[in-house]
């Protein structure tokens, strides 16, 4: 189901494409590497409570793209059929379903991705004890996997927490019905 990005389906919205993103959960990030003391990273996090782990009902790719020269930031989604970044087209979830978001950062900047109203269960290898978060930082060239249990009916903001990225287009609406 993965989108073929070699031919840049994002057009001028992306000035670079990561063809082989990788998980970097053990990397604390720029400026925090090679410290004398322990720096916590996403692979260290453990939930105190189990969450109802099961196979996701479906997977939605979230492509974080940008063009720094044109100051464009977008959040594209791909559900196996449609690729869109249009704000007017919400990311529809069915109440009660478990959706796995594969969040891929094609840019050279960190993007703290925030979902209102529901938890993001970061897949860091902890299984039923994967940490639950409202915001997950996605490093340059990284892919992270986060499960969402659609347990809150309504429209919910899903965006980059860098406000000028959000304001210029890295913002979508998750609609649960």
Describe the structure in your own words.
The chain has one domain (11-33, 43-176): Immunoglobulin-like (Sandwich). It has 177 residues and is mainly β. The protein is globular. The strands form two sheets. It has a seven-stranded mixed β-sheet, with no helix packed on it. Helix content is 3%, strand content 36%.
Which CATH architecture is right? Sandwich
The tally of strands reads 12
Q: Strand count, sense and closure of the main sheet? A: 7 strands, mixed
Give the termini separation: 24 Å
Helix-strand pattern: EEEEEEEEEEEHE
| CATH topology description | Immunoglobulin-like
Please write the CATH class name.
Mainly Beta
How many separate domains? 1
Poorly predicted runs are: none
As a percent range, the share of strand residues is 35-45%
Total helical elements? 1
The overall pLDDT average reads 93
Radius of gyration: 16 Å
